């Protein structure tokens, strides 16, 4: 018994020490970002600090020590992205153009990867192609908000392409990077969709048909209870658990939770959104980004810098170019008319990281990708988060001058 107690205590101590370094990084990152006048996003600094603290460098912290917190941070990131998304952006012609644009980019990426590395199998090629065509909407959300673009035409276009750039890869992962047949994978996705609708309908039905529920929730929204926040966390964890049970990526469940939350409370309920931002951006989301940085093997990236640069360029071509072409030549009624705005949109759309992390994790676990290639691909995604929004911000003021 004493040996078990000592082992448990040792594991707890290691987790606390890891968490100490992670929260210290979370405190330092916005201060460092401020030193760079915001041109280096907070999320990039979190990744770099995680890389330094992680097992590939100093070894002061390990992602497994705070695994569940990191997963909750990932979930909260995508919940907030789903909550901020206006479904009307995907329902009209502009939404259809965004879908066609993403599919075109996926085909382009798959062709390029197949020609460049013909010896690999289809699953390996599709894994890389999916990673190349993702958009980090959850990562872009704080950047877009901080820049005051969320309610502009450019911001709405970024949200539309960003939603497709996250949902598309998630669905593609669930269908194409699985041990199931494509038909079985589609059936599982449909079943998950039915489960999500049911889970979303239950609280609405209770609120509408059980007397006193709305009043009780409203009365217990503050103080030591914070019932609405607890309900939202329950919704998030429920859908993440359902996704896990269906052997789907938990990101799908988190994003669905955000869409459902928007429908339940509406974007006008600022109190709910503000409380979630406090929990998400104040605690959980920084943990996710720091632990993601720990997965970057610096020696692998330095050992093959050509691959790193090639992957960054491939992301720009496979994701950014189709978005720019679609916005320039396909009329959807809400096209950006200014060239610099179209370039900004392409740069924002080509900013990817969380989906790249998820895809590489799945591919490595399935022996479709080596750890070295996965590290370089994650480093390329981190580079897009640093470089592309920075360039977009630099060209923006000249447009508005």
Shape: globular
Kindly name the structural category.
Answer: mainly alpha
Q: Remind me, CATH topology?
A: Na+/H+ antiporter like fold
Low-confidence stretches: none
The end-to-end span amounts to 71 Å
Notes on the structure:
By secondary structure, the protein is mostly helical. It has one domain (about 65-400): Na+/H+ antiporter like fold. Helix content is about 80%, strand content about 0%. Helix 9 runs antiparallel to helix 11 and helix 9 runs parallel beside helix 12. The model has no long low-confidence stretch (mean pLDDT about 80).
In short:
By secondary structure, this protein is mainly alpha-helical.
Key structural traits:
401 residues; mainly alpha; Na+/H+ antiporter like fold; 79% helix; 0% strand; globular
Give me the secondary-structure topology.
Layout: H1 2-35, H2 42-53, H3 67-84, H4 88-91, H5 93-116, H6 122-132, H7 137-147, H8 153-176, H9 182-209, H10 213-219, H11 227-245, H12 250-265, H13 270-294, H14 298-303, H15 305-329, H16 339-349, H17 354-365, H18 371-400
């Amino acid at each position: 018994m004493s040996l078990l107690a000592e082992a448990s205590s040792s594991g707890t101590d290691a987790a606390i020490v890891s968490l100490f370094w992670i929260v210290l990084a979370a405190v330092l990152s916005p201060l460092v970002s401020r030193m760079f006048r915001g041109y280096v996003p907070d999320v990039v600094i979190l990744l770099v600090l995680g890389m330094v603290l992680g097992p590939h460098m100093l070894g002061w912290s390990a992602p497994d020590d705070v695994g569940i917190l990191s997963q909750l941070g990932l979930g909260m990131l995508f919940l907030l992205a789903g909550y901020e998304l206006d479904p009307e952006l995907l329902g009209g012609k502009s939404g259809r153009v965004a879908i066609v644009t993403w599919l075109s980019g996926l085909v382009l990426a798959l062709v390029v990867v197949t020609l460049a590395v013909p010896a690999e199998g289809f699953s390996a090629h599709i894994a890389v192609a999916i990673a190349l065509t993702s958009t980090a909407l959850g990562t872009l959300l704080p950047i877009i908000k901080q820049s005051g673009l969320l309610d502009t035409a450019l911001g709405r276009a970024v949200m539309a392409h960003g939603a497709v750039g996250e949902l598309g890869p998630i669905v593609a992962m669930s269908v194409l990077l699985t041990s199931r047949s494509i038909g079985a994978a589609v059936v599982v996705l449909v079943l998950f969709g039915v489960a999500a609708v049911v889970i979303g309908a239950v609280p609405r039905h209770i609120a509408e048909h059980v007397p006193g529920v709305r009043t009780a929730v409203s009365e217990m929204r503050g103080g030591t209870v914070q019932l609405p926040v607890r309900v939202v966390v329950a919704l998030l964890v429920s859908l993440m658990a359902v996704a896990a049970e269906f052997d789907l990526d938990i990101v799908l469940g988190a994003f669905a939770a955000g869409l459902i939350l928007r429908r339940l409370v509406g974007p006008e309920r600022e109190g709910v959104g503000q409380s979630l931002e406090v929990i998400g951006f104040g605690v959980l989301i920084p943990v996710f980004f720091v632990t993601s940085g720990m997965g970057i093997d610096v020696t692998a990236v330095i050992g093959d810098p050509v691959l790193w640069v090639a992957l960054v360029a491939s992301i720009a071509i496979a994701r950014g170019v189709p978005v720019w072409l679609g916005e320039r030549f396909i009329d959807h009624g809400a096209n950006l008319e200014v060239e610099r705005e179209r370039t900004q949109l392409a740069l924002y759309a080509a900013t990817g990281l969380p989906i790249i992390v998820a895809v590489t994790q799945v591919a490595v676990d399935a022996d479709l990708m080596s750890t070295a290639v996965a590290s370089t691909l994650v480093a390329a995604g981190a580079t897009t988060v640093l470089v592309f929004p920075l360039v977009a911000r630099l060209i923006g003021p000249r447009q508005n001058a």
